[in-house]
Amino acid sequence: MKRPSWNELQAVKTIAEQRSFRRAAEVLGLKRSSLSHTIKGLEATLGVRLFHRTTRSVALTEAGEMLIARLTPLLAKMDELLNDVTASGHQPYGTLRISASDAAIRLLLEKVLPTFIQQKPGIEIDLVAQGQLVDIVALGFDAGIRLIEDVPKDMVAIPLSGPLRFVTVASPDYLAWRPKIQHPQDMMQHICLRQRLPGGKRYHWEYQQHEQQLALDVPGSLTLDSSALMVEAAVAGLGIAYVPELYAQPWLASQQLVTLLDDWAIASQGIALYFPQNRHMPVALRLFVDAVKAAPRV
């Protein structure tokens, strides 16, 4: 059997990631017809179909799932090898795929990437904004960025920020004609923007003052799964939101939002870059880790 080429295998991986021939063709810099022809040729060589195709969607077949599961780590190792060899005598290159929350991406854009991109122009950063915590190894990411409390125990974590305060925020317009809030229990008489956790459970708002701790399942008619969207909804006057302060800072600075119950606020340990331990670290990731360590903490 003819051995598939590197380009053919990369094409399969990209289509599997994008779930679209059109988007995959854009990423690869190919015409959609050329990409389709490449995949048809590969399927003919292997004697199996790799993708179910309809006019609206693309999905892996069982054979395609098996190929991707084993192919992704092999391609990653080949990229590591080529990068290490090249970086020994030239400008380092490669692509870093990072799964992160949108707040973490905002931090990178502000604190890390301006200097890193200028100093390491050969390294491409592919940031994927994901609200839910994902298995970065299984999905082919080099690293992830999440709250330190959410980083899996078998990962290496590098702090990107200092402690991160959670704040209760609302727009002045919302508060103008509603009862004052002086205690977390007062929230039960207000319209709150509730948050759905990745596992499906609704998040209970947490407060602490001295030895007293509360976790409230607040009322509200709108539930979201994104802190960024909760902030936007609060700015629009749709209710009160409870989010990491980082999300709300621009609107607090412009006074479109104000904080409530500051003396009840709790803090997370902060945000961290994390990656698998006990595996060879690509040069690009090692350099990025160094940049994160050198960046100022918020």
Residue-averaged pLDDT: 86
Helix-strand makeup class: alpha+beta
Sequence stretches where pLDDT stays below 50 over 5 or more residues: none
Shape, per Cα inertia axes:
elongated
Instruction: Give the N-to-C terminal Cα separation.
Output: 56 Å
Helix content: 25-40%
| Tally of DSSP β-strands | 15
Strand composition percent: 15-25%
Biggest sheet layout: 5 strands, mixed
Q: Number of helical runs?
A: 9
Listing every helix as H and every strand as E from the N terminus to the C terminus, the arrangement reads HHHEEHEHEEEEHEEEEHEHEEEH
Question: What's the alpha carbon Rg, rounded to whole Å?
Answer: 23 Å
How does this model look, in words?
With 298 residues, the chain is an alpha+beta fold. 38% of the residues lie in helices and 23% in strands. The chain contains nine helices and 15 strands. It has a five-stranded mixed beta sheet. A hairpin with a 4-residue loop joins strand 1 and strand 2. Helix 1 packs across helix 2, helix 1 packs across helix 4 and helix 2 packs across helix 3. It is elongated and about 75 Å long. The N and C termini lie far apart (56 Å). The mean pLDDT is 86.
Structure described in brief:
This protein has helices at 6-18, 21-28, 32-46, 62-87, 102-119, 172-175, 227-235, 245-253, 283-294; strands at 51-53, 58-60, 94-100, 123-129, 143-147, 155-159, 164-170, 193-195, 205-209, 212-216, 222-224, 241-244, 258-260, 267-268, 271-276. By secondary structure, it is an alpha+beta fold. The protein is elongated.
